[in-house]
TrEMBL record:
One of its GO terms (cellular component) is cytoplasm. Keywords: Ascorbate biosynthesis, Cytoplasm, Iron, Metal-binding, Oxidoreductase. This is Inositol oxygenase. Its EC number is 1.13.99.1. It comes from Thalictrum thalictroides. Pathway: Polyol metabolism; myo-inositol degradation into D-glucuronate; D-glucuronate from myo-inositol: step 1/1. Its cofactor is Fe cation. GO terms for molecular function: inositol oxygenase activity; iron ion binding. The lineage of its organism: Eukaryota, Viridiplantae, Streptophyta, Embryophyta, Tracheophyta.
């Protein structure tokens, strides 16, 4: 089994050009859930020809991410994007917007992004038929990737995707490509480079500032638009790329009891990410009414973004 710190991680998968998809070793890491062995082309996941090229671009991605995601940067982005003054649209409209421009060159996908979102949701629905909130969470958890869109400022990849981690305290060495944090200005700032940094033990993840990306943005959108989704759904949306926590068990000293409860759902949820890129085709028009009914149940008709 490959070391977690050397393998590119899950969430730069689907969104990128040269950046890889899911770790082939993931199926062994994900516990009881049976992962598909092949992608839509019948190849193993992330079967790139230029393996070394791929590695290089992943490493370059994390170098940029680790250097640029500082406490000040994240604060600034949360404030700016937290205003939600860019546009108004429904959840479904956002799915369609994402459909237009993300993932054209993901080697594991030959279908529209909207099918990818629905595959995640439908896989969850099959195994957990009574948790309708979790089905909807599957559909929407990646919608924050609209940050890549020109109308959202066309943020660079390192500010949208990739594994996430807390800022304002020491970077844990379980973070992938940890070495590049040494060039992050916070690395040598004594306010931010101790185990607890600006936080206190057990303060709860809600009080911890996470690196900026699609997870935290979608969390802000859902919360500020007064979703009635349960707290576990918001937790999943906000921390689904927080691999140092849910894969390596780092940063648990910052969690509170509610976080511990919500982690159970996040672990369940994470099993479905790879599956969402399998061969299972979804008839969008057939399942759309069901998801529109869930959107209506948990969100206003139009959301501020
Ligand atoms: Fe994601
Ligand atoms: Fe995802």
């Amino acid at each position: 089994m490959a070391s977690a710190t050397e393998q590119p991680q899950q969430e730069i998968h689907a969104e990128n050009k040269n950046i890889p998809s899911d770790d082939p070793s993931r199926s062994k890491l994900d516990g009881g859930f049976t992962m598909p062995e092949t992608n839509t082309f019948g190849q193993t996941f992330r079967d790139y020809n230029a393996e070394s090229e791929r590695r290089k671009s992943v490493e370059e991605f994390y170098r940029n991410q680790h250097i640029n995601q500082t406490f000040d940067y994240v604060k600034k982005m949360r404030e700016q994007y937290g205003k939600l003054n860019r546009t108004e649209m429904s959840i479904w409209e956002c799915c369609e917007l994402l459909n237009e421009f993300v993932d054209e060159s993901d080697p594991d996908l030959d279908e529209p992004q909207i099918e990818h979102l629905l595959q995640t949701a439908e896989a969850i629905r099959k195994d957990h038929p009574n948790e309708d909130w979790l089905h909807l969470t599957g559909l929407i958890h990646d919608l924050g990737k609209v940050l890549l869109h020109p109308s959202f400022g066309a943020l660079p990849q390192w500010a949208v995707v990739g594994d996430t981690f807390p800022v304002g305290c020491a970077f844990d060495d379980s973070n992938v490509h940890y070495k590049y944090f040494k060039d992050n200005p916070d690395y040598n700032n004594s306010m931010y480079n101790t185990k607890n940094g600006v936080y206190s033990p057990g303060c709860g993840l809600n009080n911890v500032v996470m690196s900026w990306g699609h997870d935290d943005y979608m969390y802000l959108v859902a919360k500020e638009n007064m979703t009635t989704l349960p707290s576990a759904a918001l937790f999943i949306i906000r921390y689904h790329s927080f691999y140092p926590l849910h894969r390596s068990g780092a940063y648990t000293h910052l969690m509170n009891e509610e976080d511990v409860e919500n982690m159970k759902w996040l672990h369940i949820f994470n099993k479905y990410d790879l599956y969402s890129k399998s061969k299972v085709r979804i008839d969008v028009e057939k399942v759309k009414p069901y998801y529109l009914s869930l959107i209506k149940k948990y969100f206003p008709a139009k959301l501020k973004w």
